[in-house]
Amino acid sequence: MTKEKKKKTHVPLRLNLLFFAVFLLFSVLILRLGLVQIVYGDDYKREIERTEEVTVNNPVPRGKMYDRNLKVMVDNEPLNAITYTRSQGTKATEMLDTAEKLAKLIDKETDKITVRDRKDFWILKHPDEAEAKITDADRKKVTEGELEQKDLYKLQIERITEKEINSFTDPELEVLAIYREFSSGYALTPQIVKNKDVTEEEFARVSENLDSMPGVNITTDWDRTYAFGQTLKSVLGKVSSSDEGLPSEKLDYYLSRGYSRNDRVGKSYIELQYEDVLQGNKAKVKNITDKGGNVVESQIISEGQRGKDLVLTVDMDLQQAIENEIEKQLLQAKKAGNTKFLDRAFVVLMDPKTGEILTMAGKQYAIDKETGKPTINDYALGNISSSYTVGSSVKGATILTGYQTGAIQPNRYFYDRPLLIKNTPQKKSYSNMGNINDLTALKKSSNVYMFLTAIAIAGAEYSPNRGLNIGPKDFDTMRHSFVQFGLGARTGIDLPNEMTGFVGQDTNNPGKLLDFAIGQYDTYTPMQLAQYVSTIANGGYRMEPHIVKEIHDPVDDNTQLGAVFNEITPKVLNKLDMKDSWIDRVQTGFKMVAMEKGGTAYKYFGGKNKAYTVAAKTGTAQAFYDGPNKDKYKGLQATMSLSMVGYAPAENPEVAFAVVVPWAYQGHSSNGLNGKLAEFALDTYFDLKKTRQQAGQTEATSENKVVNSKENEQEQAE
Prior knowledge:
Layout lengths: L1 H38 L1 H8 E7 L9 E2 L5 E13 L7 H12 L11 H11 L1 H6 L3 H8 L5 H11 L2 H4 L4 H15 L6 E4 L5 H9 L7 E11 L6 H4 L14 H5 L13 H5 L1 H4 L5 E7 L4 E8 L6 E4 L3 H21 L7 E7 L6 E11 L6 E5 L3 H4 L9 H11 L8 E3 L17 E3 L1 H7 L2 H11 L14 H12 L26 H8 L8 H12 L3 E3 L4 E5 L11 E4 L4 E4 L4 H16 L6 H4 L9 E10 L13 E11 L6 E11 L7 H45 L1
Parallel strand pairs: 2-8
Antiparallel strand pairs: 1-6, 2-3, 3-4, 3-5, 6-7, 8-15, 9-10, 9-20, 10-11, 12-13, 14-17, 15-16, 18-19, 19-20
Helix pairs in contact: 3-9, 15-25, 17-19, 17-23, 18-23, 19-21
């Protein structure tokens, strides 16, 4: 019995050992699984899939542009578009297969195909023939380290014959054009394949076959439209096409700010200056890709938003009316003769108290090379990108510089007669005016008064037939003073590429300082003249001109503006370091120019029973033609340029103007284009103002009638 009992006790012990061993094995397994899942789980997961956040380049419309009266100037036109998005693991042969399918559904232009495109495509289409172009000797060089593997492809490219790259049929070239678009974009980023002239039939066919063409999709793109045609278009600026993408010279700048290479951006002027707000925010998508680079899941992070809208300071009714008048006057002047060099004219209207640009008009006359007929083109940009000798319009700055330096005092008299300076041609006014003061000098535009003022500023003395002790420092003195008004300096307008004008270099010639004093040495832009006269009009504050008034948040409802994002406030660049009484004195002289008989602008504004008063200064400059056709002529060609600056009403200015007509005529018989354009501009401004005020009063009256009618109905009901 004892032996049997012992045998029974040995069995549980073995089972316990077995159970313990199994327990240990399971513990090790569980521990290992925990280690794999918890410690190395992320690493293994990354082996299977990876997560990448990509900014998707879905076309987001740019912000719109409105004029100051909320008329749409620049808008977006929707376009049907076909796109392609390749995965990271997509092979070239797969893209080729998809391109061949798509080519059967759409028409694709082939004019952008390059020779290199043809060679790459030939290798893709003829792999065996391409491989045969590599010799055993070439492969041996790779083995021996003389060449790299990538150099073999270069050899294939070099050895493709002209006959081979010209062997493609038209349908094959169409496939190549599509394949070219497929391969030009980044992985996971949609690439525009076609967005111009996509027909409804093409759009529908592609839509029906999306399942058989991986990566192909349909969407809506946009294109800029201009409600007023060519009006102000050069200032509004251009936007790059989807083919151009980011400009190469600013590629790093844009890429560092989250742009994609094929993004459309502002290329010039307002579109460029306000790119940051016009561009909008693109949709963001988080793509989850497997190990092969294929997208297994996409999550939209943000839907994206179109760009913000701009409200410009420009009045398009005023702008168009003035542009039409410039065109009319240019054509009439060219027919009248004596205008061989006349080919452009400019008019700027500006609020002297805020710097808002109301009109920035410029037109250029040309002969169409094909038809031989005259054409008039937009040249509004010339108001900031071209400069001219403007003549006597700057004499207000000369007088004020004389006051500031102590060279003259208000009511100082000089005797106007021809000046005879050694080694200098006779310098005189258009007539001998006798003994005159500063006001008469402005009113009648005396050159001699300005000459003697400049001589006094330099601390020199005039004696007939003797030289003048004038040097470079005297030029510096006058130029420094002129810059306070904006003459010879960038105005600060919110547009790129503004020029400052040309500075005369012969500062050792005393006669040139006298020329400078009457606006016939350095050159100025029309915008500088507008800033200069605004500074006088508003009592001495140089205002920074601006063409954008407000920036608004975008809204889905295209019929209205969103909330104000930013309002451009007036900015004072500097205050003239001059007494208010001095500025008042020049203002009086300017008013005499336009409103008193004998004033050089009187025939345009005085005695005409106008509803407004004007202060102005005319300018006629003896210049030399240096325009686009100067190479046709031998030597310098003498011509006369015209200008006029001013403001109205004279007592409480609300609009300042600058008119410049370079190379207006030859000889001594002026065509008066400066005065005609200035008069028309002010007449139109005040007529529009009156019409709008009357319309506002009529609208208010109508609203009151409705309110009164409702109140009467309510009283009767009670």
